[in-house]
Design brief:
alpha/beta, Aspartate Aminotransferase, domain 1, binds ligand F0G
Length: 461
């Protein structure tokens, strides 16, 4: 390539205005929201990096596909197009559409887990963990040692710890209904899983007679990292690599709000005919008829196009470079991040930046709130607010191993100047890191508390 700049590989056909707020307006909004960024109105946020899920821009081809949507209740042409796209990509025989990823997870775990069972995974995403635990099963995280060392620069920190997986299968195999691997490992910093690791997991699953499922929300980003980092794959297309990854598994759940390039959608795809039939029964009860599963025909068509666009090399090169570019801004400001940056997000290490705030006072939430107050940038806490638990009577609260703020990048939505601006906001907050104070919870629900808990600054904040 003759030029250095990796440009956005698209031009803009339709725009959505941003709304600007004053610092006072943001302070009022945050207080009203109980210091929980999920409680803000979209108009109160300038650059929204809360999630890369369902927040991307669709292409003109996807909008054209929307018009082809067939809204027949049963047997829609849209489903046929969706089904054949998913089948060709994944190789799985049964394709069950759902309204989003967690619906696919709920159906799969309801049909495979029971109280006392164990689901090993590299790291469960929060909804995945909640869906496993909702069945009374244990969600066991077995990410490799490198993946637990935030600052370590290693190529495949999403890999599962094969020895730990084998120990679980050997000692408690009768309690394991399936093994899951999340690509990329969102809760572990968006880190990829190598094909070598997936092959080794496949062998273990074969040896112990267990099905392997992928949580494949970001399968295309994972494929790009394999192409860039794993020996022997540089000349392959991301699509070929993704196809191989899926063919090492027996099934997958995917939130198509990520690498489906859709604003809504999910899928459960699998080879086991008997299990698929039970999952379809559950689908009809809760999501919809098997040829639409909670989606409109037009959504299925847009996703069928998105699933092809997402593995284009120009798109993936730009996508991964964007996260790296933002991480470089954070490093220049002296803010440590999980290394290397993930494909879809940069994870600021609030634990390292704010050592004076104890985990029980939510340092990552403090950083997330401050980025909002400083510049209207909304990220998400991935720390004790998300993964901790209130202690039993008299016991201290359970805290998370890491205190991170994830700045997730919606797909094809923001430009380089937006990212430059976010870099300036991070720099301004980093300069007064010592003055930041922690928070305490005022109200919290039983499940997934980070979505709705209300907080207040601790005294002196
Ligand atoms: N698995 C992973 C790895 C995810 O990142 C998500 C969603 C899901 C499953 C659930 O999918 O939202 O369609 O029901 N992650 C979003 C995020 C919410 O912000 O990372 P869903």
């Amino acid at each position: 390539m003759p030029h250095h700049a990796i440009i956005e590989p698209f031009r803009i056909k339709s725009v959505e205005p941003l709304t600007f707020t004053t610092p006072d307006e943001r302070r009022t909004a945050l207080e009203r929201a109980g210091y929980n960024l999920f409680g803000l109105h979209a108009d109160e946020v300038l650059i929204d990096l809360l999630t890369d899920s369902g927040t991307g821009a669709m292409s003109s081809e996807q909008w054209a596909a929307i018009m082809r949507g067939d809204e027949s209740y049963a047997g829609a042409r849209s489903f046929e197009r969706f089904e054949s796209t998913v089948r060709e990509l994944t190789g799985f025989a049964h394709v069950i559409p759902t309204h989003q990823g967690r619906a696919a997870e709920r159906i799969l775990f309801a049909q495979t887990c029971a109280p006392g069972t164990i689901v090993p995974n590299n790291t469960h995403f929060d909804t995945t963990r909640a869906n496993v635990e909702f069945q009374g099963a244990e969600a066991r995280d077995l990410v490799c040692a490198e993946g637990r060392d935030l600052q370590l620069d290693a190529p495949f920190k999403g890999n599962i710890d094969l020895e730990a997986l084998e120990a679980t299968l050997r000692d408690q195999g009768d309690r394991v209904p399936l093994v899951m691997v999340t690509i990329t490992n969102n809760s572990g910093g968006g880190q990829p899983v190598s094909l070598a690791n997936l092959r080794a997991v496949r062998e273990l699953c074969d040896r112990y007679g267990k099905p392997l499922f992928l949580d494949a929300c970001r399968f295309a980003e994972n494929a790009w990292f394999v192409k860039m980092r794993e020996d022997g794959h540089a000349e392959r297309t991301p699509r070929e690599i993704a196809e191989e990854a899926f063919r090492l598994a027996d099934g997958c759940t995917i939130s198509l709000k990520k690498d489906g390039l859709g604003n809504i959608g999910g899928v459960l795809a699998l080879n086991d005919t008997e299990l698929a039939s039970r999952c379809r029964d559950d689908l009809i009860l809760t999501e919809g008829f098997p040829t639409y599963g909670g989606l409109a025909g037009r959504d299925l068509d847009a996703l069928a196009v998105g699933l092809l666009e997402v593995t284009e090399p120009d798109y993936l090169r730009y996508r991964v470079r964007t996260a790296e570019y933002l991480a470089e801004k954070a490093w220049a400001a002296g803010v440590p991040t999980v290394r290397p940056p993930g494909g879809h997000a940069v994870y600021l290490d609030a634990g390292a930046l704010l050592p004076h705030i104890p985990p029980a006072e939510f340092p990552a939430q403090a950083l997330a709130c401050e980025l909002y107050l400083e510049g209207g940038v909304r990220g998400v806490e991935i720390g004790t607010l998300m993964f901790g638990r209130p202690g039993d009577a008299g016991e201290p609260d359970e805290v998370a191993p890491n205190e991170l703020v994830r700045l997730a990048l919606p797909r094809r939505t923001y430009t380089q100047s937006h990212v430059d601006y976010v870099g300036e906001v991070i720099t301004a907050v980093a300069a007064r890191a010592d003055a930041l104070r922690g928070y305490r919870i005022v109200e919290q629900p039983r499940w997934l508390r980070h979505f709705t808990a209300r907080l207040e600054p601790v005294a002196g904040g």
